[in-house]
Amino acid sequence: MSMVANLVGAIGCILGNKHIMSTHARMPLTLTFLGYGFVILYFVVANRLRPGRRPRAQVDVESGERNRAGPSRRQVVTLVLLTATAPSLANARLRASLLFNSVGFTQLSKVLTTPLIAIIETSRGSAAPLNVPRIVCLVLIHAGVFVASVSDVTLNRIGCFVAFANVVVTARYKTEWSAASRAAIAARRKAAAADAGGGRTDAAEARDEQAAVRELVEATLPAAALALLPAMAYFEGGVLLNCWRTMDAAAYARLGVVAVLGAWTSSTGYMVIGRLSALTHQILGQFKMCCLLFGSYAFLGADLNGRQLSGASLTMAAVLLYTRATIKQRAAPPPKAKRREEDAPLLADDDDRGAGLSPARIRRASSLRRSKPFVA
């Protein structure tokens, strides 16, 4: 559901941003700041209407440590820096890349973000390993993006460095959000399970995931919005003064609508990154690009050639195949070797390897022993 909401909101936000920047002025940092502001306003109102919904911090009896349900201070500081610097420096990096390279190379550098995200998440073990069908689908996705959007690739050494820096910052930004969200979800589940004292339903687990990501965003965005103000004043101060003098009430209303769409896109995007993965969010971004290409061709009369349409078609088909391969991989049982390793300590004697097991694993070991035939 979060993916569909993010897809719809992002398409509306992109079209709204294009309208604002083409009719008034280019102010991407201001639009980002307004989007952050509406997200913060939503959390303030939601906390007023729904007080006391967070699980209490628990105290470990043996160690005496408090198990917090929210994000740690280190995670919040890291995410504040990334959330503030990623959009504030993106405009400067994009301009520098276009100064040294062609538009085609700038688009190509964006394609390189996905492999880097996949490598980071796989090395951390925070996502399922990529099997052969998913890797093939990823190659097809980016082949389609290359065909649809990349042309006249020219570059130089400084431009390559700037473009690669943009790739690294974007990949780090998304993977850190994903890792922090997973840690917050695990901490909240632990605290909620201690409160409940028993088994919990899938709906309760889903609510825990949503609440954990919301708490992470709520702890991060206010400081990130404040940190964005100096960059906004430096890069867009003159533009804002000019807009203040020339914009009328209708223009301010359109700006407010675009800011709300930006807030919707940001909040749902954080849900996708936190509850699924940064790689899923990145692939969803490629799917959005293809939807925009087809939408502009079908409804706005954009001049697209057969090469661009065929590349977008290949990307959309590969995204659907990637989704199918991911679902199939998650539904598949673990390999026999892995199951044998998991069952080995369960079949051992209680005095040596079986000591220290949880009651559930001990019951499972007993059932395995009873089912194993006796051999004289």
TrEMBL record:
It is a multi-pass membrane protein. The chain crosses the membrane at residues 27-46, 255-273, 285-302. It is found in: Membrane. Residues 331-376 are annotated as: Disordered. One of its GO terms (cellular component) is membrane. Residues 361-376 have a biased composition (Basic residues). Keywords: Membrane, Transmembrane, Transmembrane helix. It comes from the Eukaryota. This is Sugar phosphate transporter domain-containing protein. It comes from Aureococcus anophagefferens (Harmful bloom alga). The lineage of its organism: Eukaryota, Sar, Stramenopiles, Ochrophyta, Pelagophyceae.
